[in-house]
Amino acid sequence: MLSPVFTRGAQPDNKPDSVHIKKIFEIGETVRKEYAPDKRTAIFQVNTDSTGNVTVETTEPKAVEKLSALMKEKFINATFSINLLPAKSLGEQLFGLVNVSVANIRSNPKNAAELATQTLLGTPLDILKKDGYYYLVRTPDGYISWLDAGAIIFKTALEMEDWKKKDKLIFVDDYGHAFISPDTKSQRISDLVMGDILVNAGKEKGFFKVTYPDGRKGFVAQNQVKDYDKWIKKPAPTPQQMIEIAKTMIGVPYLWGGTSVKGVDCSGFTKTAFFMNGVVIPRDASQQVLVGEPVSVLKSDTLNLDAALKNLKPGDLIFFAGGKNRSPHARVTHVAMYLGNGEFIHAAGQVRINSMRPEAANYDDFETRTVVAARRYIGNIGTAGITPIAKHPAYQPN
Fold first, then answer.
1. Residue 247 lies in a domain
2. Average of pLDDT values for 132-139?
3. Which of 57, 84, 111 is the last residue of a domain?
4. What is the pTM of this model?
């Protein structure tokens, strides 16, 4: 799509010169900061080639309007191409379902790229564009990154709505398998992990018959799954329920980008604990610290242990910056869940419990970190960024 900007000073071919290109990039950066400040959840990129052609790629239609308005205001004359995502080349299949137990989503469209995040079987995705064998996808927590085509079953809007309305099951054991027949000694269909979602196709001999997004049929032991609709409609989690799920992950190895019981990073751990209690929260620690209710744990920009022990409640999230004596405005690099009595659970090497009390035997790891904030999600579920699955548009029918 071409977006002309009619201003004075037009060149014959309507292509901007180097001075105008510099100004376009400056304006583009202004627009990006307003409409796409976090590249993990929104895209706004201005590019130019050697011939002076300017291209804008974005997920934010209003950002294009703002760019055009500012260029007109600055008397910059150019015609630029707009790639509004999702890309038109995708046709009607703008949605997808994850078709493997745990899908590895990467920072770039190649196998060797950094693991950005993970997502689970049955998770709905927005499909944004294609690059070779990889697709740029957006997960329900808003995270944008690349997933290989082999892990996705593509859907139209109508097909996705149909899936949302189906009777489904959620896998609640740590690990397990689906089998080709209602017999654990029969051939396996796939592995399964906590949080996987499958369509319920009935019961047979102590098993649920399930259907995968690609239509495969299998059998899962009844005691490993729960009715999805009942599960998401349960009351908001209590601190005890949150901690119970968190403790089931003790010993799970640390994995950069991990958000499953196969491996978690620090924020993947807290995200998984909330998801298994029916709540979607932001993906990264630096995003998680921006939502929820602030809890006072600092005095003069330094952790006040007495205040922390008094004000923190079980289930609260504690946020850290790396190293000691860092400014409280330093970038958040770590998150933990408070258990009570000075103890917290977090993913560091593996999921484990440490204490903020200097006299505690498990205090050692706390010395290497600087507390910069704490947030309370429990009691604030339903506020911005803390969304019950039962009300999340990615999971619920329109």
1. yes
2. 98
3. 84
4. 0.92
The token pair at 148 is 């290989």
Q: pLDDT band at 77, cuts 50/70/90?
A: confident
Cβ-Cβ contacts under 8 Å for 289 (sequence gap 6 or more): 317, 319, 332, 335, 372, 373, 375
Domain range enclosing 149: 90-163
Per-state percent for the chain, helix, strand, coil, to nearest 5: 25, 35, 40
pLDDT > 80? residue 65: yes
Which sequence positions are flagged as catalytic? 266, 334, 346
What residue type is assigned to position 86 of the chain?
A: P
pLDDT score recorded for residue 152: 98
Residue 216 domain flag: yes
Whether 77 is in a domain gets the answer yes
24 and 105 housed in the same domain: no
Amino acid residing at 77: N
Whether 200 has a pLDDT exceeding 50, the answer reads yes
221 and 304 part of one domain:
no
**Do residues 98 and 121 touch, judged by C-beta distance below 8 A?**
yes
At residue 118's C-alpha, the angle toward residues 136 and 319, to 5°, is 110
Place of tokens 């809890």: 295
Of the candidate ranges 71-80, 86-95, 366-375, the one whose mean pLDDT is the lowest: 71-80
Residue 385 within any structural domain of the chain: no
Q: Binning pLDDT at 50, 70 and 90, where does residue 12 land?
A: very low
CA 311 to chain centre: 29
- The phi and psi torsions of 3 (rounded to 5 degrees) equal -125, 105
Name the domain count of the chain.
Answer: 4
